[in-house]
Specification:
The chain has four helices and seven strands; from the N terminus they run ββαββαβαββα. The protein is α+β, with helices and mostly antiparallel strands and 115 residues long.
């Protein structure tokens, strides 16, 4: 009978994406492969997580999204944030452009899945 491998989080560290072993003293949270491998619309997991953290609702990432940016977001930033919101919530973000500000709006994971 095969035994399931477990790890001790106090002494071992693993990649957040694929669970590959990482050196405990290394600051990385992704293995070298996951750091560069595209996972959604050409973006890496690390890029998507970083972008989503910019709009993530306080307290619970599954709640509706509404975050304003001044100065307005560039086209590249909009594309990345839209992909990240879509990756985590299942629906792309909407952007409200004003003269000196961009507001990112999303219904949130709970609403998208019908919870």
């Amino acid at each position: 009978m095969a035994t399931k491998k477990t790890f001790n989080s106090a002494t071992e560290k693993h990649c957040l994406t694929c669970a590959a072993h990482l050196p405990k003293d290394d600051e990385a949270v992704y293995c070298p492969t996951c750091e560069i491998r595209p996972v959604h619309l050409g973006y890496t997991d690390a890029q998507l997580r970083t972008a989503f953290s910019r709009v993530e609702p306080y307290g619970n990432w599954k709640n509706p999204i509404r975050q304003s940016f001044s100065p307005p977001l560039s086209g590249a930033e909009r594309a990345l944030i839209s992909a990240a919101v879509g990756f985590f919530t299942g629906e792309s973000a909407k952007f409200i452009e004003e003269e000196h500000e961009t507001t990112v709006v999303g219904r949130g994971y709970y609403v998208v899945i019908g919870a």
